[in-house]
Amino acid sequence: MYSEKERFEKFISWLGDRVEYVPNEGRFIWLKSRGGKQDGETVGTLSNGYLSYKSSIGEIKIHRLVYYIHNKVLPEIVDHINMNKLDNRIVNLRNVDKSLNQRNQSLRKDNSSGFKGVSLHKRTGKWGVRVSYYGKYKHFGLYDSPLEAARVYDYIVTTLVGVEVFTNFVEIVKEVPEHVSFKIGKLMEEKDA
């Protein structure tokens, strides 16, 4: 069996003049009709939500192939920044670790607040903020509205992780209650210690 890198190299050499990569669309297209595929048709089929191509040398995930062709490295995880698994433009692909990849997810199906990182504290009727940081959940207080709690969540994750994480709002939140800033500072000190 071939390693993923060996499969990519063999596949790239086999592709030759058969396909073309369309960078602004993030897809490969067939240049010549073959095996029921028409000229200009997208290379690959859907497999677990991702575009992939099955060949005699194994399955080729298109987003990983695009990343490899542009960067000549194969990271453990290639993430779709905008969470669209079919958007294989190189500007939408990045090398991430497992922690950031898990953080870059949309709302869970059982979410009741409508915001990431925010849940109702039934005993008080207030909205709590909870963030996973290095495998441990940290609580960041209770707030009167889910909107206020969501803004606090966004501030926390962009401060701890950076702007490349999925947040509740497009604009970056710049102000939060003082106790939140203090707790973030303490977390960062613990991490560095």
Describe it.
The protein is an alpha+beta fold and 193 residues long. The chain has two domains: 4-96, Alpha-Beta Complex (Homing Intron 3 (I-Ppo) Encoded Endonuclease, Chain A), CATH 3.90.75; 106-192, GCC-box Binding Domain, CATH 3.30.730. Helices cover 30% and strands 24% of the residues. It has five helices and ten strands; from the N terminus they run αβββββαββαβββαα. It has helices at residues 4-15, 62-71, 98-103, 146-160, 178-192; strands spanning 19-22, 27-30, 45-47, 50-55, 58-61, 78-80, 93-95, 118-121, 126-133, 136-143. Strands 3-4-5 form a three-stranded antiparallel beta sheet. Helix 4 (146-160) packs parallel to helix 5 (178-192). The radius of gyration is 21 Å and the shape is elongated. The chain starts with a helix and ends with a helix. The model has no long low-confidence stretch (mean pLDDT 84).
